[in-house]
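INFO batch 0412 | record 1 of 1 | parsing
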Amino acid sequence: QVQLVESGGGLVQAGGSLRLSCVASGASGTIFRINAMGWYRQAPGKQRELVAAVTSGGSTNYADSVKGRFTISRDNAKNTVYLQMNSLKLEDTAVYYCAARVTHIYDYWGQGTQVTVSS
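INFO prediction complete | emitting tokens
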């Protein structure tokens, strides 16, 4: 089992920045098998969507809506993944979830952290 704990959400004005963190803990054998970590978000009335992901090899991918504004990174030594969010827009308001992939799907999820962007 893997536990994921997010932090760093909050209220920010449009154009501002936030950095989300997600720490993974649990059985070391399972942690070692994590092959990708991602950030998803879900806005009210909308489906959950992938925002950014990073593989164990360092490859990244981003939703088109956040390219050039958000950066995902991971610190393997700390079992932590980050999402640096710059130039935030009103439409970035959502609950952001961290996820870890051990198989071919995201198997483990955090509890979510609220990001609210105000005008």
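INFO post-check: The radius of gyration is 14 Å.
INFO record closed
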